[in-house]
Amino acid sequence: MSASICVVGTSYVGLSIAVLLARRHDVVAYDIDPERLDLLRAGRSPIHDPDIEEHLRRGDLRLGVTGDRHEAYAGCEYVVVATPTNYDDRTNYFDTTSVEQVVADVREIAPDAVVVVKSTVPVGFTRALRERLGTDRILFSPEFLREGRALHDNLHPSRVVVGDRGPAGERFARMLADAALDDDVPVLLTDSTEAEAIKLFANTYLAMRVAYFNELDTYAATHGLDTRQIIDGVGLDPRIGTHYNNPSFGYGGYCLPKDTKQLLANYADVPQTMIQAIVDANTTRKDFVAADVLARRPRVVGIHRLIMKAGSDNFRSSSVQGVMKRIKAKGVEVIVHEPELHEEHFFGSELVSLEELKARSDVIVANRLVPELHDVADRVYTRDLFGHD
Predict the structure, then answer these.
(1) Which residue has the higher pLDDT, 210 or 256?
(2) Which residues are annotated as a binding site for NAD(+)?
(3) Distance between CA atoms of residues 118 and 261, nearest Å
(4) Using alpha carbons only, what angle is made at residue 63 by residues 61 and 67, rounded to the nearest 5 degrees?
(5) Annotated binding site: which residue ranges?
(6) pTM here?
(7) pLDDT given for residue 120 in this prediction
(8) Per the annotation, where are the binding residues for substrate?
(9) What are the tens digits of pLDDT across the range 217-235?
(10) Could you tell me if 109 and 28 are in contact, meaning their C-beta atoms sit under 8 angstroms apart?
(11) Which candidate in 129, 198, 255, 336 is catalytic?
């Protein structure tokens, strides 16, 4: 049965959910950014995601857009919240202000609507909010998406998890599963706090795997060993496998850095060493990479792309930025090629064309190898072995 749904926020999580559900339901996407809304009205995506772009081009979705919160919420059965919850290092806590504001607005404008929080929140947040407001019409449902492949991951989900075991949670889980292209999608209904923990522990495990293969690579590089031979041998163990094993400059992007820190904060009164080590390992890796680049005694270091991984247009908390800052701190000139930026400088470093980057750089730092750097391969510094993330 069709439902009336509002999705708040049109970045990777929100827009992918909106497009997914708009294939079967009436969906309104609400955002406060007029530029994003103008792009969506024109059938264009404000984020880089080939599947989203294709669906918007086809124009076959039951999808409306608005910047008016009353228009967005009025008459909705479900309001899906996908607003940013950035991690605040001062408070050791996600900034959940935007989520709480949406909940307050929905309770005022559409009090019967069920609010589904897709934004990542601290463990215990949903239960505390329910108790404070005296309502059970707030659910948490974690997302497990890759930037640049968000709609694909919603159409072919590894699992659907909803932190509510009642009818409202069951119906929302069924909407997500029915909108997927795969049959027999695993559906798990849990309590809200367990669902929040699933999200943070899943991302921290992924960060741990990134950190593990990076530290393996650091060991091999320090001892003059062939990293790929070691990884190939380790990966033949079926308990380990050959996936998610490509060395990098560290984990970055919107999710893993902040989710690992939030999980660590949730461990404040619980004995642990591993979660702290995962967070620390990401800093150590960037220290090693920067030192390894500086050992080549370059006068000018070129940074090829600031994005956090291939196929993304996001460079929030990307690991290469950490490497760049460490190199600059040693007084070495750094220039940057990033086509997503149209200014003249990025944090004091000159933004240049690809041709100028190649001409001026003694060393070109690239988190991932790309064909456009093959002609200067002898000057490229990367830890990329497999050509994938």
Answers:
(1) 210
(2) 31, 36, 85, 120, 147, 258, 316
(3) 19
(4) 160
(5) 31, 36, 85, 120, 144-147, 199, 244-248, 252, 258, 308-309, 316
(6) 0.88
(7) 87
(8) 144-147, 199, 244-248, 252, 308-309
(9) 999 999 999 999 999 999 9
(10) no
(11) 255
CA distance 154 to 82: 14
Residue with tokens 């989710």: 259
Taking the alpha carbons of 215, 320, 235, 152 in that order, is the dihedral positive or negative? positive
CB 179 within 8 A of CB 24: yes
Residue in 315, 345, 313, 312 with CA at minimum distance from that of residue 328: 345
Q: E strands along the chain, which residues? A: 4-8, 26-30, 63-66, 78-81, 87-88, 93-94, 114-117, 138-140, 160-162, 187-189, 300-304, 333-337, 345-346, 349-351, 363-365, 380-381
Q: What is the pLDDT of residues 160-210, one digit of tens each?
A: 999 999 999 999 999 999 999 999 999 999 999 999 999 988 888 998 999
Please, what are the domains in the chain?
4-190 (3.40.50.720), 200-381 (3.40.50.720)
Whether residue 255 lies in the annotated active site? yes
Q: What is the mean pLDDT of the chain?
A: 91
Residue 130 pLDDT greater than 90, yes or no: yes
Question: Comparing 273-282, 314-323, 337-346, which segment has the lowest mean pLDDT?
Answer: 314-323
